[in-house]
Amino acid sequence: MTDINTDINKVKIIQNVVSGLYSSTIPQKQLINLDKVSSKVRYVAIGSDHGGYEAKEILKHFLRNIGYRITDVGTYSKESVDYPDFAVKVAKKVASGECERGIMIDGAGIGSSMTCNKVKGIRAALCYNIKTIVNSREHNNANVLTLGGPLHTPDELREMVKVWLETPFAGGRHWRRINKIIALERNY
């Protein structure tokens, strides 16, 4: 069933591209890699500061158990650290293509989202419930999720991350908006 859904999503994306929804003003090298639109994510970078360490450990083990390949960029203890140091590591793993998605957890998720979004090619979304999780993927094609670890129960964290990793980008009218984000990145 997953392969059929993936094929259907790819056909929809191609139809959107052919129908002109994909801006022709963006140079070819700036176009989003359509292969990465698939909801079949395998490689995930995960990081945290000390405030998100416990949540990171819970999610790391959960994701490995359900089949994801995890790259843990730290931190590796509850000792106080600065979230930007780890948020940029997660963002760079995704921007380089080494990982398809990234998850960064700190005390509230705000600072990590701001940091990740400084890295070219990153669309980090701070999410706090299932509705924002789904929207970040379907409409914004977020490739990094930031969370406030202490703000959620372990079960909420597991559900949110699983849904985020499994939700595909809807394409269609949303391509135009993603292209505008990419264009802004080039100009500023």
Task: Annotate the secondary structure layout.
Layout lengths: L1 H17 L24 E6 L4 H13 L3 E4 L10 H13 L5 E6 L3 H7 L7 E3 L3 H9 L5 E5 L5 H13 L7 H14 L1
Parallel strand pairs: 1-2, 1-3, 3-5, 4-5
Helix pairs in contact: 2-6, 3-4, 5-6
Properties at a glance:
alpha/beta; Ribose 5-phosphate Isomerase B, Chain: A; five-stranded parallel sheet; 188 residues
Structure, described:
The chain has about 190 residues and is α/β, with parallel strands linked by helices. The protein has one domain (about 40-185): Sugar-phosphate isomerase, RpiB/LacA/LacB (Ribose 5-phosphate Isomerase B, Chain: A), CATH 3.40.1400. It is built from 7 helices and 5 strands; from the N terminus they run αβαβαβαβαβαα. The chain has a 5-stranded parallel beta sheet, with helices on both faces. Helix 5 links the parallel strand 4 (about 125) and strand 5 (about 145-150). Helix 3 (about 85-95) crosses helix 4 (about 110-115). The longest helix has 17 residues, at about 1-20. It is globular.
What would you call the structural class?
alpha/beta
**Beta-strand content bin:** 5-15%
- The shape, in one word, is globular
**Helix and strand run:** HEHEHEHEHEHH
Number of domains: 1
Query: Radius of gyration in whole Å, from Cα?
Result: 16 Å
- What is the terminal separation in angstroms? 42 Å
Fourth-tier CATH superfamily name = Sugar-phosphate isomerase, RpiB/LacA/LacB
Unreliable spans are 16-38
Main sheet: which strands, in order across? 2-1-3-5-4
**Percentage of residues assigned to helices:** 40-55%
What is the number of helices?
7
Mean pLDDT figure: 87
CATH topology: Ribose 5-phosphate Isomerase B, Chain: A
CATH architecture label: 3-Layer(aba) Sandwich
CATH domain class: Alpha Beta
| Major β-sheet profile | 5 strands, parallel
Total number of strands:
5
Pfam families: LacAB_rpiB
Family: Belongs to the LacAB/RpiB family.
Protein name: Ribose 5-phosphate isomerase B
GO biological process, one term: carbohydrate metabolic process
